[in-house]
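User: I'm putting together notes for a lab meeting next week and I want to include a structural view of one of the chains we've been expressing. I don't have a solved structure, so I'd like a prediction I can at least talk through. The sequence is below, exactly as it appears in our construct file.
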Amino acid sequence: RLPDGRLKFKADDWGFGGNAGVLLEPSARLRFGITYRSVVDFSYEDQIKFTNLGPGLRRALERVGVVGGETTLDQTTPQSVMASWYYALTDNSALMGNFGWQNWKQYSDVGISVSSETTQRNIQANQHFHDTWHQAIGVQSRFARSWLLSAGFAHDNAPVSHFHRTPTAPFDETFRYGVGLQYDVNERMTVGAAYEFLDLGDAEIANLQRPAGTLDGDYASNHVHFIALNVIWKF
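Assistant: Thanks for the context. Below is the predicted structure for the 235-residue chain, given as structure tokens.
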């Protein structure tokens, strides 16, 4: 049996964007805010590197000018809008939440170009993503003078249907559960730790239109665990 071969692509790029926001405080206990994050464009370039190719596949790739050429991937991160609110239930506890939109449809199109001495190819790959909505709710409680406990839940709908999902983006609608604890060491310094559990769903794949054959299945375990430590220093 001949090997399938391997393609290695490694690149980085700088992107520039902007954020804007407004915060309103109708009362001492209630705050509303809205933020906007712009798109950021990236272009990744690298020389095409193949390893472990069978002789037949290598000759075929050489004929179309791919071997030894350069690849460019153009991608755009989505713009987003987020509205949030905060309400102080008591002097030591608060309820908060947010609701937002992300323009994942814009992220869906990936420009791919291959150039060499013998070929120049440009492909616009559509991943069939669509826009998503986000909603979250959380609570905070200062149960002691120096201790602050936070907990929350968030949900995002799936950006792609199971008919177009691929193993490169194995996530469905997502559910997040988080808890955090902060301690005021003194008036200028606060330390904290947080844990978040991310459930990515079963990410069912029923991609029946692939030229190379049917891709069908799901993920029995599709979870991510986050642990964070933080230090806040006030100048």
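A couple of points you could mention at the meeting. The radius of gyration is 24 Å. The mean pLDDT is 85.

User: Perfect, that's what I needed.
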